[in-house]
Amino acid sequence: MYAKISKFVNIEEYAANFESDLNKDEKAKSFWSKQILILIDNFVKQIRSNEDDNDDNKDNNHHETKEDKIVKYQTEYQVKVKVLMEDPTKFLSIRHLLQLNEELLQKYEFGDIWRYHKLEENTKALSLLENRLQEVATIDNTYSRFETLFYGLLSANIFDSGATAVQQILKENKNFNFDDAMLKVQQRPWLVDNFDSFMDVLLQGKIKCITFFADNCGIDLCLGVLPLIVEFLKFDIKVLLCANSGPSLNDITINELINVIETAGKFCDLIKNSYENKNLILCENGQKGCCLNFLEIDEKLVDLMISMEVDLIVIEGVGRSIHSNFNAKFKCQSLKLAVIKNKFLAEGLGGKIFDAICKFECYK
Length: 364
Description:
The chain is of the alpha/beta class. 52% of the residues lie in helices and 10% in strands. The two termini are 24 Å apart.
């Protein structure tokens, strides 16, 4: 496996740089020690909001109610975070803190606690996709069209269930939508803005096949990612569109992605035809968290990336492109796209909340 992925990353260099150690940054550690407790409370609220699968019935083997398991989940999560935070000798990343959520949800048999939320959001967003595609198609200038698409993707990336600032916005304004998000995102120049460099490479025809790692369900995927994917397909660029193998927050999973693409294909011939003729291939990334470790991605995906000679890796979202992979170097062109959704991270990068990252790098 390592021999295969080494075609895209220098393994030793990648392992040292794809995520940062909180135990070497006291300010970051202090922030996340408080932030993770807020997130745990949010996860508990989400579990309680799901009244399905006979959750309120007692487990026949253990005589536990749903509430019993919630208390155990919350207590164990808090204790394990405390233990991790108190051992400065061990490497500790944001990925480790968030990965605990998936492990404990599985342990206490809660499954995908966001599944109905994601289904609802996908349905709503898909109903708006056709109009969004038509809006973008009216922009004749290629540069302006892609700039609009990048703004759209960055704006749509705001809709993240793991971001407490966003959840507060949605709590205060239940009608907050894609157009509202467009007004929130930083105007160009973005905090990291390599858009022009990317366009130079694109217009020179130096991109033939993309591996695109998507982030969230709903507006993020349907109104942000898919319109950009459609434009890539119009340029005769093949796309491997990747989703999580298992659930994590409101991140898109491979089964959900398949459903979204099949639905979108009903009113977008390009998506339908590209999916059928393998110019658009849907892949699972082999992971369940909201971060992305290239040393652990699905081997079938790596094989496909090699056989299709992928020359651009696109990583979307804060977890995948900033918390992990922001400083990672690839052996092909890479593009990292995200909107920063917490003040601490923004200040660490020299910006403010809802500033945007468009980091394009060419392999040297």
